[in-house]
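look at this:
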Amino acid sequence: MAWRFKASKYKNAAPIVPKAEACVREISVGSYQTYGNNIAASGAFMAFNWEHTGSSVAVLPLDDCGRKSKTMPLLHGHTDTVTDLKFSPFHDGLLATASQDCLVKIWHIPEKGLEQSLSDPEAVFSHKQRRVETVGFHPTADGLMYSTAAGCVALFDIAAQKEIFSNNEHPEVIQSVSWREDGTVLATSCKDKCLRIFDPRAAGTPIQMQTESHQSIKDSRVVWLGNQTRILTTGFDAARLRQVIIRDIRNFNTPEKTLELDCSTGILMPLFDPDTNMLFLAGKGDTTINYLEITDKDPYLIEGLRHTGEQTKGACLVPKRALKVMEAEVNRVLQLTSNMVIPIMYQVPRKTYRDFHADLYPETMGYKTELIASEWLNGTNQAVPKMNLDPAKREHGDEPIIIHRGNLNDFIKNIENQKTKSKNQNLNQCKIAAATSTKRNDNEHFVLQVRKCNNGEEKNGNESNAATATNEKQRSVHATTECSLSQSELIRKFEAKYKTDSEKEPPCQVDEKESPTEHSTGSSEEASSSAALDTNSASGSHSPPKPMPRTSRNNSLPEATSCDSAGECNTPRPRPRTTAAAAYKPRLGPKPFSSNTGDVSFDKVFAVPVAPGSHENISNVGQDNGSDLSTTQAKPDLIVEIEIKKNHEGDTNVTGNGNGNGVQKSLTTSERRKIFEQNSESSENSTEGEDRTDADLRRFSAVRSSIAERRRVYESRSKSQVDEKAQSPVPLRRESSKVEPLKPSQQLMSSNSSNVMPQAAATAATGGIDSKRISVPEGKLMEEHRQQRGNGTTAAAGVGLGGAGLKKSATEAAFSAASTKRTSTVFGKVSKFRHLKGTPGHKSTHIENLRNLSRQIPGECNGFHANHERVAVPLSGPGGKIAIFELSRPGRLADGVIPSLVNGSNIMDFQWDPFDAQRLAVACDDGIVKLWRIDEGGLNEPTNAPLGELTAHLDKIYFIRFHPLAADVLLTASYDMTIKLWDLRTMTEKCTLHGHTDQIFDFAWSPCGKLGATVCKDGKIRIYNPRNADTPILEGNGPVGTRGARITWALEGHYIVCTGFDKVSERQISVYNAQKLTAPLNTASLDVSPSILIPYYDEDSSTLFVTGKGDSTIYCYEITDEEPYICPLSHHRCSTLHQGLSFLTKNHCDVASVEFSKAYRLTNTTIEPLSFTVPRIKSELFQDDLFPPTRITWSATLSADDWFDCNDKAAAKVSLKPEGMDTLSSIQQVPAPVKKPEHSQFASKSEYEISKQQEIQKSVSARMEYTTKLEQDDMEGVDENEWQE
């Protein structure tokens, strides 16, 4: 068959798009002007830019799907857009990111993925005030990274964390970089329209070749076609047509193939697979992904099936080892869209997918390399070994091969191990011999055969020469295993670098007697490698292979027994622990044991590990260190055989090292069963261990025979004591409050006694407590109280601290009252407004047919204001119009022109005068505040004649605020970052406040009218005293988000409530102490929404209402002066979205209906009244517990002159009780305290209880029918004559 008629195996590869459920959905991706692909993939993860700024990176598992939350963990590492990101080809968790902030950062992704947001990278490299454009890893050298910034190409050694090469010979910005597959040279495309071949190791100039490429300065990309001599580039020609050019470096100046596509503006991202020669062209902004196949001869580019779908923001290829080869998936493209990540599988159609189609999968680039950065820089070239994708030739079948090599520190240690391996030249012969004697593929490990003893059997030794034989055996074992241990160490270091997830095993303990090199360069990765490699004896004779013994519960292999010339074998022993007790990490599996001790029981086989941090654990570590350090050189204990030594009848003592007279024998299945049955019977007869002492529950004791009992003890001891939090809002007490402060004499005694008995003083003497502020729940406090009464008192008395006991009056009173406490103190504060109810007004009270509402109002403006007579609503269109609607005339508005106030400039903010329902102040973007007066009948026609104008600022005005107590006092805040106070009677400026460094979001007056609080875009909260100083008197940290914020005062001015956004744009409410603004007392997070939460605080009920423009939910909270400070109430959910909410003063609430707050709600077409009530049974009474005397805020308390002259006056209070209504407290009388007689145990009933009982009797009698007529009066009786007879 002629070549041009030869059909390709991949010609019909079809793109298969999964359903939406199998894609990553509801993500936030913007449009970024970068030279990167915006998405990268490894064998385990995918990473892509997040949100419109692109400064954060989202990392998800490769097979992840479904909806994603806006608050999912991210990489918050850069302050500007991430321009490029790449994964290491030899480490699936090593990610490099480049950004416009001139930094390149290295991240380690844990094996389980991101469980929390990361902001601290493993390493940071700087490009010295130049925007980084591209980043990536070398294809063959481990730990070698490249990046480009402007015209600079830089190479970094990650292990040494330094720059090892830099070149600035490119005259313009480098747009793309691609390495040759063998890692010798790279190709660059530059903004100067040239393509270059670059060799960083060349002497002289590194630029080896240069030619002109695409004739447009727009973005161009370059990709080296595998290990060939050809290069493919994509870009634009002079007519801005998209081009694809193939060049051969042997004839570099002449293009081998030029393909012109279309006139689209999106740059083509080339994705090339060198194994199949499949090329995918994904254009940014395009909805199609082209598939072409590259050939060696004309036509060079053969077009395949085209995929059409969503608009592309980025694209990348998935590594071949992560493909589904049993489904004939030859490639997978991850397409990044504005809200999805779509995995597009390219499948070759076959009749059946039961078998592996080897013709579709040639050997591909592996994941192992022996070349490191320093060796490559010195001129060493070494190809990465190929791997076979056949599941039958892979250890774990068709499962994806995932490579995790730990964090950067582990990675650096592995590189150091690689260097030490190259230095040990004397071990090359052993390595070559081991490599040639054992055949393995790329997924198998080196195995060194075990050389058995000459006789092959265990022999009994005499008691007389046991010690001598032991010493000789130790010397012989040490001599014969020196070379073999070096071999196993070398191979283990080599294999440990490429352990996959499924190949990893639990880390083994490190032996003290191993070489110092292993201690210094060893890592967790080495510990997870194959530690059970067998050793060769010095004799050199090979014995037939032994079958592998049965594995134990920890799925590991038994230790190899080393024999001496006499044939005696050492008993395998676990490796001694060499870590300190404080840093001890317990094993999670059964504890290995040997039969050297005489006590062999079932408890030793299935022993539960000791809880970390316990005294028993520490003592065991010490015993292990003391007993095992004198033994022979131990080997890794992946499996310890369960062995038992049967002593002779006359032997009663067994030596610690197991060299007595006895036969070593493995436990049979029947023996294990007998031991298990015996221990099970004893555990059934044992009692529960609730009240046992700690000594009774020691490991291997008779009481601990039950597995369930040991599990219970382990779980109880393994509970973390560090981050202990109360599950319910239990009132917390400071630990320092449990004890009385020490007197000076006691302090002196405490300091003297600490030298004599420091441990007792630390554990028992609560009088020696320091000033640590540790919150302790009352349940724990009571438990400690009992323990200290039983134990601590005597110890404290022994050191002279008996006088510093617990507070008996306060603490014991709290304990005694714990059983009689209200549910509000046990289960948290129960608010009277917990079940508040929001009720919209009847439709007859609505104002309908609203139209042309303005949605261009700035975020600092609430957008809607109402008083008890009328409402003000901004209208769209030029002229800054505000419509005024009378609340006394509800109903449908007539069609036509809506009467409005024409301000002539764009509206920035507006507000009704709180003391004059007819005056409206409007701030415009020209810095002028216009004062309008509305007549009694309302507006009948549009007007542009205000009552007065106040030229407040030369720049735009953020907002305006009236004083809550003084009349004619107005505050304005401007873009010039100043705040001014005005007297509206004289139209004069009184004072100016400074100190803001950025946009001012909000200002709130304190209830007393003396202070003011601001929240700013710079993340600061400031408190001013305007009449005393023009700078803030107090400053603290506020919300970190920059979208907007609001602030208000609470609890009579002692606290401040601030609403804003966090780093991930989640809306939150924070409560601050007005005297200390360093950190919020508590923060409640709501949801992710762009609208700013606008707060309204009702000081009488301490209820906070928050909602945003475009929301449908009004969130209700109660602000308290104790933890948790923010108590959620019943939120009100409206049927439609609202554009604003405005509350009325307290005197307009219908208290007869238990209405404690009233508001008007603006929707797209209506204005609706909204009533907030509290359900009460006796609603006919005045609920004076809900309606305390309220401050008069609807009339002025003092004039402007009085306020500016500091003649402060508190606002008067008035009762809201209507005339003729009885109060609830008058019916529910408070019982007077009655003194109980001392001579009697039972007190008589109080007068209140007697009167209450009488009232109940009267009320019951009133409900019953009362008549004096008897029932027998209606009966027919006997006539009198009959009686006489």
